[in-house]
Structure formats: structure tokens, C-alpha cells
Amino acid sequence: MSTIHPSSIVAKTATVGNDVSIGPFCVVGPQVTLGDGVKLVSHVSVDGITTVGSGTQIFPFASIGHQPQDLKFGGEESQLIIGSNNVIREHVTMNPGTSGGGLITRVGNGCLFMIGAHVAHDCIIHDNAILVNNATLAGHVEVGEWAIIGGLSAVHQFVRIGRHAMVGGMTGVENDVIPYGSVIGNRARLSGLNIVGLKRRNFNRDQIHDIRKAYRLIFAQEGTMTERLDDVAEDFSLNEPVMEIVNFIRTESSRSICQPGQDDAA
After folding, report:
1. How many other C-beta atoms are found inside a 10 Å radius of the C-beta of residue 191?
2. Active-site residue, selected from the candidate residues 97, 110, 139, 151
3. Which is catalytic among the residues 65, 70, 108, 121?
4. Cα(138)–Cα(122) distance, integer angstroms
5. Residue ranges of domains in the chain, CATH in brackets
6. Is 122 among the catalytic positions?
């Protein structure tokens, strides 16, 4: 059975799964769905057309599913869909989508959102991503699996953060970050590869060596980017991580690719 503290307000039409725990002073809106085993610790506000997946924990003063911070928003019905087994810490804010982005903000499974993190309208967060304290995503940002967005960092709207990428603390990200890349700076520069992350995810020495070699070729000075990508694709056609980087760069995007600084290497 689920437990609801008597000080909390849960709308009669909200859907509450099995084994849900709703602590003191929470507010759950009429179109909210809480999956099995969800835990709202206390002082949590969940509203809008919001789905919270099973096993997700939400800590005090989080604001989930309320109206997007977008002046173009006209009250259209839009959704926030949060997957399973996420941890959403204190003061985190997550907004639903808008008509300009498909009407959905989507969060995958197993993610960690530390204190004060913000997920704006129409973002897509894939599985196992981490937003460190006060990391902020503008609208329409996509964050790949296992990516880490460092503390006090800010990501510009429509930016793509590739899988296993690392955004350093206090970094302003204006351009797309390649999979496995590491960026840092007041306006982010690509500072190499996320080698520590690759080792933690059990990439072997040969895989890391090939990714580093491909990285150097892609961001070399000779030739055009298109020519360098073609060369890397030919040399590493059977290497899945390398081809992931190649295809990421080739994919049409409204943002440029974040480039290395003059003295940065893989």
C-alpha cells in the first residue's frame, strides 16, 4: 500500500501506483502519474501532465512539471515524462515541453539531478546522465547516456551533449559536445576526451587508443572537417565509438561543434 502524509495534498484524479511514499507538505496535481515505489520525501510540488517512473526519489522543494519558462508558451497541453530509478535532489526544477519542441520533455532512467539543477522545456535526457549541483539546461537540449554536466555550468538551447561526455564545472556550453569529449571554460572549448569516464565505463585500452587516434585526426589542422571525417570513417569503419563521434558531427544541428583550444589534446 502507498502512504500519504496527512499534510500533503494529492488531487483525486492523480494516479498513484503501489508502494508510493508521499511525505509531509507535498502537492500532487490532477494529471500527475506516480509509478510504483516513487518517493516524494517532503515539500515536493508535482503538477502538469507529468509521469514519474517507478522507483524515482524526489527530495524537498523540487518543482516538477510546472509551466515552462518560455514566453511563447500558450498553455498548450504538454508533458514531462520522467523514467525509472532517478534521484532528483533538493530545489531541482523540470518543465514540460512546448509546441515548438514536440510538446514533451523526457528524462530517461537512472539519472542523478543534484541540488538546484534545471531541466528546461523540450529537453531530452538519456539514461544514467548526471547533472551536478546548479547545472542548468536551456530549452531543447539533448544529453546523451552517461554524460556528466558539471556544477554551476550552463548549456545553451538546442545544444547536443554526446554520450559519455564530460562538461567541467562552471562551463558555458554554446556548441555541441562530441560523444566521449571533455569540455571546459567560460565559453566551452573541447579539452580532450573523457578518459576517466571511459575507464569507469570499462572501455579497454585498445578502444581508448583508437578513440584518441581518431580524435587527433578529426581535429587536425590539415584539410577540411569533411575530408578528415571521411578519412576517419574509412580507417575506423568497424569501431563503434569512433563512428558514433563521426556520425554525431555529421548530423545536422543548429549549433556548431565545440572545438579544441590551441593547446588542448586528447
Report:
1. 21
2. 139
3. 121
4. 9
5. 3-140 (2.160.10.10), 199-250 (1.20.1180)
6. yes
Instruction: Tell me if residue 70 is catalytic.
Output: no
The amino acid that residue 254 corresponds to is: S
**Residue carrying C-alpha cell 572545438:** 259
| Options 29, 122, 126, 151, the catalytic residue | 122
- Are the beta carbons of 138 and 156 closer than 8 angstroms? yes
pLDDT in tens, 132-165: 999 999 999 999 999 999 999 999 999 999 999 9
Q: What is the pLDDT of residues 170-187, one digit of tens each?
A: 999 999 999 999 999 999
Cell of 143: 544529453
235 belongs to the catalytic site: no
Rounded Cα distance between 151 and 171, Å, is 8
The pLDDT tens digits of the residues spanning 73-109 come to: 999 999 999 999 999 999 999 999 999 999 999 999 9
With 90 as the cut, is the pLDDT of residue 207 above it?
yes
pTM for this predicted structure: 0.95
